[in-house]
Amino acid sequence: MAWQMTQLLLLVLVAAAWGAQVPGTPRARTNLLNVCMDAKHHKAEPGPEDSLHEQCSPWRKNACCSVNTSIEAHKDISYLYRFNWDHCGKMEPACKRHFIQDTCLYECSPNLGPWIREVNQSWRRERVLGVPLCKEDCQIWWEDCRTSYTCKSNWHKGWDWTSGYNQCPVKAACHRFDFYFPTPAALCNEIWSHSYKVSNYGRGSGRCIQMWFDPFQGNPNEEVARFYAENPTSGSTPQGMGPLLLNLTQMLPLWLLN
Ligand SMILES: *[C@@H]1O[C@H](CO)[C@@H](O)[C@H](O)[C@H]1NC(C)=O
Ligand SMILES: *[C@@H]1O[C@H](CO)[C@@H](O)[C@H](O)[C@H]1NC(C)=O
Ligand SMILES: *[C@@H]1O[C@H](CO)[C@@H](O)[C@H](O)[C@H]1NC(C)=O
């Protein structure tokens, strides 16, 4: 018992000492819960939005998006990002609804704090990286989009924007989604430059973020954010210190035995 306490104490001390100043590690946000990222359309603070539109309505009780943003999230080439879903002919409605839901999650969720990272981009100061998307949400997204067409596997970069909305660059040919995204993980992880990292956990586990949820049961992502805020090494995004700390935890018992 005593050695376990010593081990724990040592670990905490080591973590505190290293966490305080690690060269090259951007200062982590102090508040990971109930926050909005500093990006293009997010509100400064989350709060109630009684009339959020259709697919964004699950976030009505507490949202980072305005009503305007929630309406625009449902439009093609909306004022949000001028993004053209139909860049290789019409995207199937069954597929498009996942992109609308993905936009609602990104714009509205106040539960992405543990995955917010600073970026040096002209249009936003923060992004999310490695959000552990529940495996079923990714699987269904991929299945519903298989038969739609696209010309790229990373939709953040490399478009031709000369017309004011994104079009396929000349060298990128249109193929079915499953050509550019052979697996569900390829779709969810690659499409937005690793904003998501598909989780091995499933819906309802409390360990992965749900893009789709029934608000009458509450927002299941609150618990997920709380878990990863308290256990930053247990999941999808090692924050630089993660792997080292893990190593230390493995080594400490050996020191103590000697
Ligand atoms: C949302 O706001 C933008 C900028 O003010 C405006 O151009 C757009 O028409 C608004 N959309 C809706 C649905 O009100
Ligand atoms: C951020 O980008 C600007 C302009 O591209 C550049 O001048 C600056 O050095 C960059 N800062 C960092 C920390 O990379
Ligand atoms: C963890 O320790 C092993 C050897 O015990 C080493 O090879 C590995 O690079 C270490 N990993 C990290 C992230 O420090």
Automatic annotation (TrEMBL):
Keywords: Disulfide bond, Signal. The keyword Transmembrane helix does not apply. It comes from the Eukaryota. InterPro entries: Folate_rcpt, Folate_rcpt-like. GO terms for cellular component: external side of plasma membrane. PANTHER family: FOLATE RECEPTOR, FOLATE RECEPTOR ALPHA. Belongs to the folate receptor family. This is Folate receptor-like domain-containing protein. The lineage of its organism: Eukaryota, Metazoa, Chordata, Craniata, Vertebrata.
